[in-house]
Amino acid sequence: MAADHLDLQADLDDLVRWAREWGLEINARKSALMHIGHGNSYRYTIEGKPLPCVQEHKDLGVVLSHDLKTTTHCKAAAVKGFCATRGDLILTFRIFNYDLCVDMSYFFTPSGTNNLQGHSKKVSKPRSNELKVSPSHVSGMDSKPGYDSDDEFFDCQSEACFYAVASPLSKGQGEVFVDPKRAYLKLRGITGARLKLFANHVDANKFANTPVDEENLSNPYPPSPKADVESSPYPSASQQTLIRFRSMLDSGNVDVVKQMVDENPMILVTTSDTPTILQNFETPLHFASKYGHIECVSMLARHPLTKLDPRNFAGHTPVDLAATRLTSQEKIPHSDFDCPTNIVNRILQIFDERYN
Q1: Residue 109 three-state SS
Q2: Are residues 192 and 289 in the same domain?
Q3: How many folded domains does the chain comprise?
Q4: I need a surface site. Which of 83, 118, 152, 327 has the fewest CB within 10 A?
Q5: How far apart are CA 52 and CA 34, in angstroms?
Q6: Shared-domain flag, residues 265 and 331
Q7: At CB < 8 A and 24+ separation, what contacts does 83-90 make?
Q8: Region Disordered: start and end of each range (predicted)?
């Protein structure tokens, strides 16, 4: 036995020398030593590195054991076969459950067992998939009186929603989906496609197989009838025109204001027949009060629908702005009042009469 050990080590050394002569490399880290059928403890080296002694070794997909038994290899093959079968079962479950809306709980029972049914070995392999199913015997529903498997098949679809996508004839065939995300992806991918929700597969399939009329794709809705209303011969006032109109009002240039209104009355109203807003939060009562127009203040304040205390963007009411824009004698709009103080007192008197 010792001579055989030395001869085998010499053969390994010759193999290393031959590999070097032919420019080949032997990886000692991937080499292993296995004693078959004998309990000897001889050690061998390659390039001076001792080979690890193993009891089992897998090479070319075959698990080889030191006792030449096939138990380990059969167990590994069973695990691989079970994983493949289990994957097929999960795929079948998903197809029937999600695509065909068949309740697979009548045929498969959710299970958390680690045992392969009907197999003597406990086979378990961790997977990231959380769905675990194991085939179980169909319950004795077939033996119940009045039970019809066909009716049970269609009962599974009673609460299902089918998304039918119809496409133009030149863009391919329509499809029916259960997953709304897939239906919307199909809809966005086809120009002119139509999507409709159905409660049963028959109507959904009929809609999907009906091509969309391509003649109405450019304008599927008829044009709305135009309103029989006489249009205004004047154009809408531009923003620049409104700014100029407001500046003329602020400066008291009545002649230019009248001229602008005569040229385009649309300065005063919008296309919706509403008053033009020259400045937000400023009411006509604000303008009349701050410019000291007593007659306008009196007319507006006495109207029952006029609000006397609205606030502008600065938080001021019309009373707070009484004659605030009168800075000189030339701007006094009434000859009866010789100073802004008298105008302020008159405006305050008008508001007091209205409040009382």
Answers
A1: strand
A2: no
A3: 4
A4: 118
A5: 8
A6: yes
A7: 83/125, 83/127, 86/133, 89/133, 89/135, 90/129, 90/131, 90/133
A8: 118-142, 210-234
